[in-house]
Write a structure and sequence with these properties.
Arc Repressor Mutant, subunit A; three-stranded antiparallel beta sheet; single chain; Four Helix Bundle (Hemerythrin (Met), subunit A)
């Protein structure tokens, strides 16, 4: 784990918690990895107390589990959780689009179209790191323009949890192109002002993401067991 630079704008506890959490969600700390307080504290340059508190909070968030006489371990992948995240995201993001359309329709459409143009540019150039950034921004634009901090918090949390599963396939051209097509369909539905079609487009987009996860992540896991 890379050394953590702790700035004064946040407490050490907050910084340590968010740092370890992001490392898990990005897959840098892999499922089933054991989390040793002393080792983590040494690697990021802090005492064991904030690490211990961070691991406890991550257990409450269901990202790690505590095993007697072993300690904390990163939770494994769960197909049912993927299904649940996609269902919840479909409901919340459909609502976010409705709110954003009612408040700032023109700005929403313009911002999403610019975002899609940038996605296409990066995919064409083979710069999938750049694409991934704009992929995340696409959903953030909708949530921010919906005008609800609580909704923004929920959508970002769910997307980060889903990223943990997508990390193995998100940097692949074919999955990027499928995701881009889903985004285009969502914007087309928004322009038509058809919220039923918007809901269908959002759900179809998330189902495709789910199917990519099930194929690339859980298929690989099954292959490794064979």
């Amino acid at each position: 784990m890379k050394k953590l630079i702790i700035k004064k704008d946040k407490t050490i506890r907050q910084k340590v918690y968010h740092h370890i959490r992001e490392e898990i969600l990005k897959g840098t700390i892999a499922p089933k990895d054991r989390l040793i307080e002393a080792k983590i504290a040494e690697e990021i340059g802090t005492s064991r107390t904030p690490v211990r508190e961070a691991l406890h909070n991550l257990e409450l968030e269901k990202l790690v589990i505590s095993i007697p006489r072993v300690g904390y371990v990163v939770r494994g992948m769960d197909m049912e959780e993927v299904e649940q995240i996609c269902e919840i995201r479909a409901a919340i993001e459909g609502l976010a689009i409705e709110w954003a359309v009612r408040k700032q329709r023109d700005r929403l459409i313009q911002s999403l179209k610019r975002n899609i143009a940038n996605q296409k540019k990066h995919i064409t150039k083979g710069n999938l790191n750049g694409y991934v950034e704009f992929d995340a921004q696409f959903h953030d634009i909708i949530a921010r323009l919906a005008g609800s901090e609580r909704l923004l918090e929920l959508t970002q949390t769910l997307r980060r949890h889903m990223l943990r599963y997508r990390i193995q396939c998100i940097y692949m051209t074919e999955t990027a192109e499928r995701s881009l097509h889903g985004h285009e369909r969502i914007v087309d539905a928004i322009e038509k002002g058809d919220f039923v079609e918007v809901a269908v487009a959002v759900k179809t987009h998330l189902i495709q993401a789910r199917d990519d996860i099930l194929y690339y992540v859980f298929r690989d896991a099954d292959d490794n067991k064979a």
